Amino acid sequence: MSFHDQVIYQVYPKSYRDSSGNGVGDLRGVLEKVPYIASLGVDMVWLNPFYVSPQNDNGYDIADYYRIDPDMGTMEDFQELVAALGEYGIGVMVDMVLNHVSTEHEWFQRALAGEQKYRDYFYLRLAQPDGSLPTTWESKFGGPAWSPFGGTDLYYLHLYDTTQADLNWHNPQVRAELHRVVNFWKSKGVRGFRFDVLNVIGKSEVLRNATPGENEKLLYTDTEQVHTWVKELNQQTFGGTPGLLTVGEMSSTTIENSVRYTRPDSRELDMVFSFHHLKVDYDRGEKWSDVPFDFMALKGVLTDWSVGIQAGGGWQALFWNNHDQPRAINRFGDPGLYREESATMLAAAIHLGRGTPYIYQGEEIGMIDPAYESMDDYVDIESHKAYRTLVDRGLSSEQAFRVVASKSRDNSRTPMQWDASEFAGFSEVQPWLRPTSQALMSVERQEAEGKILPFYRRLVELRHQMPLIAEGSYEPFAREHQSVYGFIREYQGQKLLVLCNFYGADTAVELAAEFAVGKVLVCNYKNCPDLTTAEGRLTLRPYETVAVLVD
Question: What residues are annotated to the active site?
Fold first, then answer.
């Protein structure tokens, strides 16, 4: 099976199922739910980090690449999970965080103790002659990207949290260590790797400030060095292993670079995650803002990336939700009046497109952002930093809270909602992050009477069954329409027109003659449109999606 016809299910173990009764999800909790995961029809499960970590960034601050955090379980649990999923033909994808390590990692601690070998594992620099920091770079979590290195006169680089020290990939010993990490997990039966923020590993050995008008991010993002090192990573680890799937998380990347990462002849990666479509509700590029999403910008990004990646012979990962993003229904749909319609429309927009779809836990049952009332409900380090920054800028506490509530990473990290019990069937005790809305949106409710979960299962099935969906070309449709995102897939004489209404009002779409006589393959209303009476003009209901097949 080509990865073009695969669907990946993302599990955030900490929030999936607590099997030990401590309020924190774990690997055995995931193991308990293997039959449910298999019922979705997915081909692979991506597990967020479960390694030893102080959890300053929910496991993306790794203190030991080779050991499983005791809160998550044991290596035996992991091997049992791999085997259990394997019985259903489902592979396991693990998260590889190779740009940085926790400051509690042995390498950093030995560097602090004065061992030169390990000091060379990191970017350590002296202050400027005037006493200022080595560069003016900003951390992606806010504040300077440099912190004092112990009691020395050096500073260490951290593009993310202060407890996440960037690794010096220029050092061949560092690269060899990281290759060993990947090969270790491959030996454990892992069939996929998701590489965290991979395109920022290519920082120069000589670090400098951006010049006036220069974008600081371009000094360390998508540099030529990244491609060289990813090719090397491919050659030394996963390259040539049949059936092994790789995806790179690419921060602020471009279509051109994404094509280079994923063209088969590049021998780098299978596919990439990009995030430009999830920045269309940022106010002038600022994440921590609360403005309506720009639909035409969203449609433009989805279209341009699909067309551009296709033209270059590359491949992309398709997704709305993950552990770092607010729930898509809250951002691009109506979680109140049209929750099920919004959820299914958004699903069709992704799953019928050109690329490999990813489902994030809870998305398939229509989970929405939690209705928190206080910053005390939030755990995420980035959210608390953002709140303090917004208040410092002059926003009232109420305004700052509203902004954080709209964009917090914790929105997607609330526990998976299995049933309507007090703790949503996730745990028998108070979870590490409070659930708020499980009564209406749980697996139990969806299995009994919902339409979101069956719709997802149908979309997964169609990708497996129809080469048109897995391999077909992509062409934009009705690009100027102010409410509808549309596209055409074509393969070996078959065509599929996909229409998605992103608003809560009826809207009309003109159909070409060939589609006016087609048949509806998928729709998300109980009564699908009757094309025989449409007379070439189809009226889409609120958040309706319709896919018309022409043989």
Answer: 196, 249
Tokens of 383: 């959210």
Query: pTM score, two decimals?
Result: 0.96
CA distance 263 to 230: 13
Q: What is the rounded CA–CA span in Å between residue 377 and residue 549?
A: 47
Place of tokens 């039959």: 35
Using CA atoms of 542, 547, 548, 551 in order, give the dihedral in degrees to the nearest 10.
180
User: Which CATH number is 485's domain given?
Assistant: 2.60.40.1180
Rounded to whole angstroms, the Cα distance separating 544 from 486 reads 12
Is 270 inside a domain boundary?
A: yes
Q: Give the list of residues 6+ apart from residue 133 with CB closer than 8 angstroms, or none.
A: 127, 144, 146, 155
- The verdict on 292 and 195 lying in the same domain is yes
Instruction: Tell me how far CA of residue 106 lies from CA of 70, 102, 118, 368, 517, in angstroms.
Output: 18, 9, 9, 39, 66
Which CATH number covers residue 453? 3.20.20.80
Cα–Cα dist 38/88, whole Å: 6
Q: Sheet of 146-148: strands edge to edge?
A: 124-126, 154-157, 146-148
Does 16 map to a domain? yes
- Segment 254-279, tens digit of pLDDT: 999 999 999 999 999 999 999 999 99
Q: Are 308 and 259 in contact (CB under 8 A)?
A: yes
Q: Are 365 and 441 in contact (CB under 8 A)?
A: yes
Residues 192, 43 within the same domain: yes
Give me 220's structure tokens.
């360390």
pLDDT tens per residue across span 238-254: 998 999 999 999 999 99
Residue 225, φ and ψ in degrees, nearest 5:
-65, -30
Same domain, 227 and 333: yes
Tell me: do 283 and 345 sit in the same domain. yes
Selected residue with higher pLDDT from 2 and 46: 46
* Same domain (yes/no): 448, 523: no
* Same domain? 52 vs 187: yes
The per-residue pLDDT for 381 is 87
Per the structure, how many domains does the chain have? 3
pLDDT at 342 over 60: yes
Nearest CA to 388 among 142, 186, 153, 119? 142
Task: Name the residue among 250, 115, 104 with its Cα closest to residue 173.
Answer: 115
Distance CA 539, CA 481 (A): 13
E strands present in 55-157: 64-68, 91-96, 100-102, 124-126, 146-148, 154-157
Residue 489: what are its φ and ψ, rounded to 5°? -105, 140
Domain assignment present for residue 529? The answer is yes
Range of the domain at 499: 470-550
Among 528, 139, 503, 519, which Cα is nearest to 346's? 503
CA distances from 430 to 24, 70, 137, 410, 424 (A): 9, 19, 40, 16, 10
Q: Is residue 186 part of a domain?
A: yes
